[in-house]
Structure formats: structure tokens, C-alpha cells
């Protein structure tokens, strides 16, 4: 009897939570040198670091999100060199709510891009 009651409570809780997540889904894949995610609203991020010399933004949607563009190469975060996607994730996980300065190589120039507190974590770890 207790087991059935507990199952009923869990089903009810799940049913009540569904509207909060309606229309939201993220498909995410990550390795040492790759991070890819996209959601049902058309937002996406695809990062790769196959050469270990920075993190290329293969795709980002919407274009220009956080002042980042397809083809940009992230070379440092807050002055710390990042060679692999995993380096960026480790740094971000240690500074989840911090403001961040990305050093990005775009075309023939190196740029500094300021991100608001928590913005890098939101970009790398999408959630509803």
C-alpha cells in the first residue's frame, strides 16, 4: 500500500512539473575536444579543439550570441590559456557565477570579450 501511494505521489509531482519544461529539450555531447548542444528553440553551440591550440566556435545560434561568432577561436579565459574544450569547462565549473573575459582570435585580430556574471556557465551548460 505504501509503495502504491509513493508511486502515485511521484507520478503527480512529475505531471505537475511537465508544464515548466514544455517545449524545452537539450541534446548535448561533450568530449575533451568537443562540446555540442542544441535546443528546440533553435539555440545551439558547437565547440571543437582538435589541434589543442584554442577552442574554435564551429557553430553558435543565434549568431552573435554573447558577441561570439562562428570561426572565432577562444584562446584564454580571464588570462588563463585554454587549449582544449575540457580546459574551458574546468575553468567555467570553478567560476560558475563569475564575470569573465574571453580572449578570442577573430580573423587577424585578438579581441577581449566581457561576459556578465554567470554568462559563460549559461552558454556552456544550457538549462530551462
Q: Which ranges are low-confidence, i.e. pLDDT below 50, for 5 or more consecutive residues?
A: 8-24
User: Biggest sheet: strands, sense, closure?
Assistant: 8 strands, antiparallel
Oligomerization category of the chains in this entry: single chain
- Tally of alpha and pi helices: 3
Distance between the termini: 36 Å
| The CATH top-level class label | Mainly Beta
Mean pLDDT: 82
Number-wise, the strands total: 8
How many domains is the backbone divided into? Answer: 1
SSE string: HEEEEEEHEEH
| Shape summary | globular
Which value, in Å, is the CA radius of gyration? 18 Å
Structural class: alpha+beta
Helical content (DSSP H or I, runs of 4+):
25-40%
Residue share in β-strands: 35-45%
CATH architecture: Roll
At the third CATH level, what is the topology name?
Pdz3 Domain
How is this structure best described in words?
The structure is a single chain. The chain has 128 residues and is an alpha+beta fold. It has a single domain, classed as Roll (Pdz3 Domain), CATH 2.30.42.60. Helix content is 28%, strand content 35%. It is built from 3 helices and 8 strands. Strands 1, 2, 3, 4, 5, 6, 7 and 8 form an 8-stranded antiparallel sheet that branches. The two termini are 36 Å apart. The model is unreliable at 8-24 (pLDDT under 50).
Brief sketch in words of this structure:
The chain is an alpha+beta fold and 128 residues long. Helices cover 28% and strands 35% of the residues. The protein has helices at residues 2-21, 85-94, 119-124; strands at residues 26-31, 34-39, 44-48, 55-61, 73-77, 80-81, 100-106, 109-115.
